[in-house]
Amino acid sequence: MSAPPQPASFAATAAFRRLSELARRPHDLTAPGGFSPARIAQMRAGACELDVLYAAQRVSPDIMAALADLAREMGAVERFREMVQGAVINRIEGHPSENRRVLHCAARHLFDELPDRPEARLPADAVAEARKEAARLARFLEGVDRGTVGNARGEPFTEMINVGIGGSDLGPRALYVALQPWRKDGRRVHFVSNVDPDDPAHVLREAHLERTLVNVVSKSGSTLETRTDETLLRHAYVRAGLDPSVHFVCVTSPGSPLDASAQYREKFHTFDYVGGRYSATSAVGGVSLGFGLGWPAFEEFLRGAREMDLASQDLNLETNLPLLLALLGVWNRNFLGLETLAVIPYSQALSRFVAHLQQLDMESNGKSVTRAGQPVQSGTGPVVWGEPGTNSQHAFFQLLHQGPGVVPCEFLGFRESQYGEDLEVDGTTSQHKLLANLLAQVIALATGKPDANPNRRFPGNRPSTVILGQRLTPRVLGRLLALYENKVAYQGFLWGINSFDQEGVELGKVVAKRVLPLLTSGAAPAPSGAPESIETALLRAARILPR
Amino acid sequence: MSAPPQPASFAATAAFRRLSELARRPHDLTAPGGFSPARIAQMRAGACELDVLYAAQRVSPDIMAALADLAREMGAVERFREMVQGAVINRIEGHPSENRRVLHCAARHLFDELPDRPEARLPADAVAEARKEAARLARFLEGVDRGTVGNARGEPFTEMINVGIGGSDLGPRALYVALQPWRKDGRRVHFVSNVDPDDPAHVLREAHLERTLVNVVSKSGSTLETRTDETLLRHAYVRAGLDPSVHFVCVTSPGSPLDASAQYREKFHTFDYVGGRYSATSAVGGVSLGFGLGWPAFEEFLRGAREMDLASQDLNLETNLPLLLALLGVWNRNFLGLETLAVIPYSQALSRFVAHLQQLDMESNGKSVTRAGQPVQSGTGPVVWGEPGTNSQHAFFQLLHQGPGVVPCEFLGFRESQYGEDLEVDGTTSQHKLLANLLAQVIALATGKPDANPNRRFPGNRPSTVILGQRLTPRVLGRLLALYENKVAYQGFLWGINSFDQEGVELGKVVAKRVLPLLTSGAAPAPSGAPESIETALLRAARILPR
After folding, report:
1. Measuring CA to CA, which of B62, B82, B351, B518 is 20 to 30 A from A244?
2. pTM of the model
3. pLDDT value at B176 more than 50
4. A12: which DSSP letter?
């Protein structure tokens, strides 16, 4: 399938003009009846057993209608279906760009009972590759479980070190932390990501190398940090008298330098049509999560993601949760002028999930150029940040409630805990207290409170959304991950940008290559008369080179 | 000492007007010579072996002079000295408020060789209390080391569970993570903070209770989360046939409910003049850090903080780093209109340090009312967020380089790694690569890059500061922590706000108390005719109560 037609321009749509008018008087949550029981009962949506409550956003039925018009004018759902069908949407018209399909959704198309919708079928080649890789991984993990895949002494592997950075680290790490109750007995996964030598040095103190598999994850096979950390780990294995070829596996693209190497016990594949930050459901997440949690838990995680992918193609905002969240975000970002988004999971298990969402969102939509190669006419991706509640209530919520600026919030929560180990203290369980706090924040932010003491006054009218599930299982986590992946993609479709490249990370790499040799050879003074470079001046000012 | 006179109004100063004029044409880093070697050599400051490079901020000598005038007009250094001397600065004039002194600096005044400066002496009572608590803690830790403080079978304690939230969690946790190379052999500290029951449930699977001390940290002695988690842990001890009174210690204020309890083996004190988020150098940080790292490492950490406290009283911006950083932040926030601040440590050890700074800064300065009880006339504390480099280069740096908005950055780094275990790969060590990347980001953000391809264009002119130390030791970490504590206090003095209360967290607690009983009794329908409350409506919409 070739590239689809260029979309309309976001700021030139009729809906944009209408929304700009409506934004002069956004809904006031503090007005009489502005946050009423009737409103709360009405403004909700749901799919895949996730409930979304958005009565505490500053939207009215008029505004919601105009947002739905915006989605229609921008052809948002059609764009999503084009993506699923394999259109080459990772491109910038008229300029050199990656020119790729965007098919991370294929990675979770493993279930015959969850077939494609007739409007959008995933390309057969990508589905076949995903299923082949999944089957290979399941077989490999079975070997690990049975002990047929073991160390040189025939002992089973109990630990894994995952070596990767960015998309090869944040997603797998966040998901592993989120699913600890599903961890296989005696299994443990460590993560090494940073080129900082203290990162592998610390993990080397924690891991038992003779029982550890090392999983090197690099889509390109040439990532500086990963290559460097891998070399450090290989040296540690050799020093320990262990044969790296027994312990090292990798995940990479077919044909990459890693793929060409004979140094790996097993190689798993990810593909050029799966972006790093969207790769948690591919082998990139699968090897470490499958090792730590077992294949069945990982498969359930994929099932959840697949279910949300299918729901993400609905035209109806009441069941298309990613599109709904995307539109509410556009309202806050482009029409209320709010530049950040706090995601607050009321779930300690999701303590690293926001770091993954931060990457997913900001690397995808921190863009200033449309797919047509034009400057954007309005704001794009917000700064996404957050920490778990209730912890964050005791940290930065002061600013959310009483700071001069407004930060919209997305609260995530679950009706039941993961472990189910709870206790009544003062008549309520911890889970009750957790949920009460989540909902209390929604109310407090929305309604505020007058007070004669100006320092105890709460202005209110601060928007938030609640996303609620029953219990954070692998399947629910898969739904939640796909919800956010698809939300980010939808916002990109609405803004008319390419959410799948990352040209903004390239300049830093180029400059680092100029600085790096100066660290070993740069101590020599510049030839007389030659001006000192910015790079050398910085190194001297930093006293890394002598002044 | 009574309350000092009210400061001048920030927005009414002559310097504010001057800076507002200068902000019409802020320094352009992309102009010819705008980021020159000479500028880089000149725009630096240093104290306590920390170097600060600020040539990549959008400031000129004129702007720096006006910022220094602003500090003088607001009496910033005098305010800091008043704080140190025990003035009652935690107050709002004319309204009920905490009315307390602010004396966390006393917690690190343990060193006769680092006496007070004559201009500002810490009150004798606070110093005496700090030294007494430090001596008690050192003795207790000596008992743990020697095994005289042991479990019921006389075995030594090897683990600790720290139970606390907010200031009783984020600081100690971040610092413990940062100083892993100093961890005592065989010792380990776990942290429980969230009221989410999965938080203690997970830690209970990791800890070996019979060899574990539980440290309950609550300044007020009545924090909901801490009390609840403590109760869960006590039940676990009883279930395991262990006597909690042998295993539980606490840190609290004299006279609190915890302090009155007979259930603790040992009680350590923090004081009403030490705010939670400023309490890492008190017993709040001392018990867990001292247990995990040993007293000598904790003492070195305190020594570093004390050194920075003394340097923080300089009138000269070239050596008063907290004031310098505060002023640069004010320039970005109030005159360039930048609403967030990214703190990026190029140090995996500081992976949780930013979460602590986030609390420290946002809870202190996320305020809209001056100490005189008036609405602020200009922005106050920014949204502070960040993750370690180089990881974050592969995550959200796309937005920093090419997003439509501008995010000022503070980069932290060290010339040497902690472990000193490194390897040359392709001719350079990992530490070289780490430093090269840090400085490369400064250059790339500042200078940008033109390109015929709009998607590969970098606008540049994006400000950053570098803070560089030699090696992240306990002493250097103490300096860094006090640098930020004092920066936050200085920004509060500049804005004329009270950085030491947190009234904005109260409303959520009040509303949670309304919601909580509904979770167990609220399923009953409202009496016929009675309107449903917002709280009940939310619980039904969330399907926590039946619809």
Report:
1. B351
2. 0.97
3. yes
4. G
